[in-house]
Structure formats: structure tokens, C-alpha cells
Amino acid sequence: MISLSDLRKVYRTRGDREVVALDGIDLHVPRGEVHGIVGESGAGKSTLIRCLTALEEPSSGTVAIDGVTLTGLGERELRRQRRRIGMVFQHVNLLDARTAAQNVAYPLRVAGVSRAERDVRVAELLQLVGLGDRGDSYPSQLSGGQKQRVGIARALAAEPAVLLCDEPTSALDSDTTRQILRLIRELRDRLGLTVLIITHEMSVVREVCDSVTLLDRGKVAQTGPIAEVAGEHGSRLARSLVPLPPEPGVAGRTTLELAFGGGTPAHRVLAAVAALGEDVDVASGTIETLAGTRVGRLRITVPAAAVASSTARLRAEGVHVEEVAP
Ligand SMILES: Nc1ncnc2c1ncn2[C@@H]1O[C@H](COP(=O)(O)OP(=O)(O)OP(=O)(O)O)[C@@H](O)[C@H]1O
Ligand SMILES: [Mg+2]
């Protein structure tokens, strides 16, 4: 379980300028949940992870892992608690001169685990990430996805309660990405891990996350279970979770975007569209099943002169409508 409460981080740069990187973050990720953190460059994602691993000291607020508050701990206790947190990075940073097995064994050696116990653990861990037969391979002999698996096994060596992943699949192709995400879910199921994934790819959120938070300039702009935020029609996360292809506009006609799913069943949207009469046309549409809930968006065009009346009639039927800027 990860709990952040009113977390603030203010960096002081040269010339005494202040950068508010995190501006009062409240976040609660229950045990066993996979939570995504998204947001534009500079939103504070990496700062959030650094505060979680206590690499960075928050300016105020608290960070707690499984009920243990990390903020304010002494150096020794902090080091002990850090072992409860596994980290997976975009670039794996394996030791090139060591085999996969030796890389996984490394944190166990540092922690003073005996040789015999280490060998057993490393074999188990490599098995767990699907590399049971590759322990003797050197990093240069492994594919990008296999290296990331070794990185995940290494992160799990100290039996962490929490796995923090910073862009874990950004350097991988789409098939390998899917395999790694599947592995993360399996590990969550088997080990009861709480997982936090920082990503700029909405496909990662769609595929692996139970819940998601959108950060915007250090603040939580939107947060919740995937199906719920996708059903918040017109919201930024709904738009990016259920994207529509760009389409050329038609002269003299205006595009309206309708949302369905969640509390708005498709048949109600379709009936309301049909009731607009013969002037309406379909431009594009998309549907996604997110955490078992179907959510979609439909774009229609109407004559420019009929925008106000069409919008009013659709809204009267309880349909979420927005005009798409040309
Ligand atoms: N050590 C630092 N000193 C001063 N400012 C910093 C420092 N680290 C980050 N910042 C600032 O804090 C803000 C948040 O940065 P952060 O690295 O957390 O963003 P991010 O969401 O991870 O972005 P990206 O997607 O580009 O990695 C930015 O305005 C950044 O310039
Ligand atoms: Mg970053």
C-alpha cells in the first residue's frame, strides 16, 4: 500500500528561484493494485518517484509504504525500509561483466544473504520472470525484453512490497512491451505486489493499470479506477484513454463529439442521433473495453447552422456533447 499525503516538493535553483515540482499530492494505492501515473513533461512524475524512494526529501507532507511513514526516518531505518521498494527503470543498467544470475544475486550479496540461499533465490527469481534457462547468459547475449526481465527479477530479489516502474517499456517494441506488462500483472497476482508505473504511453495504462492519476504541474488533475475516469466524459484522461483518429473537417459542417458508455448506454446515444434527422452524418467512432467496461466516443457532423439546436436536443436526451474545434 502506498500513501502520499499533501506531498510538496519545492526545488530551489540558483538565484533562489523556486520550482514547485509537487504541489500538495494526495494519493492512495491499495495493496495489490497497479496504478499508472501520467502527465506531460515536467509534471512532476520523476520527482514523485524520487520522493517515494526517499532519494529526495519532500519539502512537506508524508510518504508511507504499507503503513510505515518514510518521511523523517533515520538513515539506517530508511535503508531498511528502502528494501521494501523495488525499482524498475527504462534502461536496465545491468552489470555487463556479470551473468544474468549474478546480476540478480547482486542485491542479495549486498544484503548479506548466504551463498547457498542466494543460489536458490536467484533460480526462483529467474524462473518467475520466465528466464529459468538463461542464468548463465551475459547481458550482451540477451534481448531488450530479456534484459528488462532480469531487471525485474533483480528488483524483486529483496522481496519488496512495492514495485516502482519508471517508463519500464519505453525502450521496447510493442510485442515485448505487451509481454513485460503481462509479466508485471502476473507478479502482482502471485506476489500481491503494489505497483506504480510512470508512463507517457496511454496504451500501457490501458493494458496493465487498474487505476490512474494524471499529474499536471505538480497537482493531481484527475485520478481514479480506469473505467471510472474513462467514463468521465470529456475529461482529459477519457480523451486519451479512448482516442479518436484525426479526421479532416467538411466545409460548411461542424463536428460534434458524443460520449457513451459508463452511465450513458450506446442505444440512448444512437436514438438521440437518429432523432436529429437526415442532416446528420457519422464522421468517426471508437470503443474500448477498459477494466471490463465499454466506453466510446462517436463523432458526427451537422450543418453549421444546426449546431446549437442539435447540441440542445442531444443534451436534452442526456448525451454528453462537445463541439470539436475545426
Ligand atoms: N533537481 C532539480 N532542481 C530544480 N528543479 C528540478 C529538479 N528536478 C526537477 N525539477 C523541476 O521540477 C519539475 C518536475 O520535474 P520532473 O522531473 O519530476 O518531471 P517529469 O514529469 O518526470 O518530466 P519528464 O516526463 O520530462 O520526465 C520540472 O519543472 C523540473 O524542471
Ligand atoms: Mg521524468
Account of the 3D structure:
By secondary structure, the protein is an alpha/beta fold. The chain folds into 2 domains: 2-230, P-loop containing nucleotide triphosphate hydrolases (Rossmann fold); 242-323, 2-Layer Sandwich (Alpha-Beta Plaits). The chain is built from 11 helices and 14 strands. The strands form 3 sheets. It has a 6-stranded mixed β-sheet, with helices on both faces. It has a 4-stranded antiparallel β-sheet with strand order 2-1-4-5, covered by helices on one side. Strands 12-13-11-14 form a 4-stranded antiparallel β-sheet. Strand 4 and strand 5 (68-69) form a beta hairpin. Helix 4 packs across helix 5. The longest helix is centred in the middle third of the chain and has 18 residues, at 174-191. The radius of gyration is 24 Å and the shape is elongated. The relative contact order is 0.12. The mean pLDDT is 92. The structure holds adenosine-5'-triphosphate (ATP) and magnesium ion. Residues 11, 13, 19, 21, 39, 41-47 line the site of adenosine-5'-triphosphate (ATP). Residues 2-242 form the ABC transporter domain. Pfam families: ABC_tran, NIL. One of its GO terms (molecular function) is ATP binding.
